[in-house]
Design goal:
The structure is a homodimer of 320-residue chains. Chain A has 320 residues and is α/β, with parallel strands linked by helices. In chain A, 40% of the residues lie in helices and 21% in strands. In chain A, strands 3-2-1-4-8 form a 5-stranded mixed beta sheet. In chain A, strands 11-10-9-12-13 form a 5-stranded mixed beta sheet, sandwiched between helices. A 3-stranded antiparallel beta sheet of chain A has the order 5-6-7, with no helix packed on it. In chain A, strand 9 and strand 10 form a beta hairpin. In chain A, helix 1 crosses helix 2, helix 3 packs across helix 12 and helix 8 crosses helix 10. The longest helix of chain A is centred in the C-terminal third of the chain and has 25 residues. Chain A is globular, with a radius of gyration of 20 Å. The two termini of chain A are 23 Å apart. Chains A and B meet through strand 10, helix 8 and helix 11 of A and strand 10, helix 8 and helix 11 of B.
Chain lengths: 320, 320
Amino acid sequence: MARLALGIDLGGTNARAALVDGDTGRIVAARKSPLASREPQAAVAAVAAAAREAAAAAGVEPGALGSAGVGVAGQCLGASGVVANAPNLGWRDVPFGAMLERALGLPARVANDLSAATWGELRFGAARGSSEVLVVFVGSGVGAGLVVRGRLVEGASGVAGEIGHVRVPPPRGGAPRRCGCGQMGCLEAWAGGMNLSARVREDLQAGAVTAVREVVGGDLARVSPGAVEQAFAQGDAYARGLWEEIGELLGTAAANAVTLLNPERLILGGGVLMGCPGLAAAVRRHLDAAVSPSAAVGLTVAPAALGDDAGLVGAALLER
Amino acid sequence: MARLALGIDLGGTNARAALVDGDTGRIVAARKSPLASREPQAAVAAVAAAAREAAAAAGVEPGALGSAGVGVAGQCLGASGVVANAPNLGWRDVPFGAMLERALGLPARVANDLSAATWGELRFGAARGSSEVLVVFVGSGVGAGLVVRGRLVEGASGVAGEIGHVRVPPPRGGAPRRCGCGQMGCLEAWAGGMNLSARVREDLQAGAVTAVREVVGGDLARVSPGAVEQAFAQGDAYARGLWEEIGELLGTAAANAVTLLNPERLILGGGVLMGCPGLAAAVRRHLDAAVSPSAAVGLTVAPAALGDDAGLVGAALLER
């Protein structure tokens, strides 16, 4: 029988649990459990419930699994299992790993969600077979995962990979935007899906002429990167200009990270990049133009392969 | 008796060799030998001569040493000992490690010169005791060394740390400058000592009003970062503006690297930064303003401690 591992993805509203075949990376069973509240104890209960249900669906006893891995959107202090800061959950210094170990009766490894997703892509996705890897995710936020010598780089305090918070010049001389982190000039303030949508809404309210307005039927609440992509596909000039601008910011930031780290593989992932091929193409163009020639030699760029499953698969298979 | 190791620094005009006490990092003896030509065989001969003389000065037989390490300004393919590209020497794919092993009768490890200097700072300098380190060097060029989990990061093809070739916005909307690497928009095109001096010369030729002109006695050939620093110390407005501009470029690039890598220690080194305290202060100011708050927690910033000796000490003690 296949060696099964338990992978967990803890978001701000749900806990997802999956049993993953350690030999193939295949998800054998997965369950989702809503968080009754964001209190750590409630999150542990939701995780344990999802894990029990997934195990039952796969026909195994939870206790028969060797260990569990959890990806959390936040700053995780590596092997200690402590979540130092998770803004989505409102957590500060929560000993989540230890709480989970008690609840599940299993050793538990806690990691940043993008580190877990990076590990998934490394083990069974687009980075398979590489030991020097950079993964850039563009979803509602912007972040990265780093692999050096085949191991995750988590940094001195668990916040390595914060490429969303590197400082970038405002595109075309525009005024800097404040990021969700409170700082000015972060990449994520322009290129994260949430901020991108807010900006398009502002432009629409200011009277911008663009097919995005028709795509969302005049309903600003429906504005999204996907709506911009639809307008882009129709040849809309506003959307084209926006993708060029955001593509330059993301492509240059990714290129600079490649120039610094000299990875063998750069993986581009996250819901916004995967769902917006027009934007992804602009990112690739600016990446190719900006990466240093010596780091470009031998670099392979590829889209992420596991999508939303990367975090579950990676969490399940995290190294101790 | 102290355990002695042989460290070598190979530049474009000289080979330096030193015997380093492996327990203290102290240089017991050092010798320099000029390169008769830049041919690999001539470089090997110069290195061997310097090594023999240093060993003689320390009263040991070269063959009694355990191994040798060499820092070369160029792209080094890690354990293979191959120098893939060294523009200063005009080398491409030179099996320098193997050539050196034959000439010295010792195992030899070849590394990029800034990686070697980073290793020196890690073992016996300003990064001692840290396992997650970023060293930024500003001399005639701009480069970095990275340490993750206590080991050098050399990258997939030996060019990790090329922070001089990340793309930066031209300061104050000026036109981009071409870098020595052939690309436009590199940090080094503005902040490397050689390019910085060239630009100040251009400004002087264009009639810039600045005390730099008096500092160099009207002789453009004497323009250097040190001359700008002298003018800065006299309160010169041009020098103040230039240090602010270059300080912002370097400080922001260093901050972005810290945000990405989350090191425990950032070391600032290289002849230009060590020789120009006014510039170094501007770098620190912009670094503090631009680094992400989560990566700033627990970060220590310090000047390099070993100066020119870092490369020799680090090369001697490089891990196999």
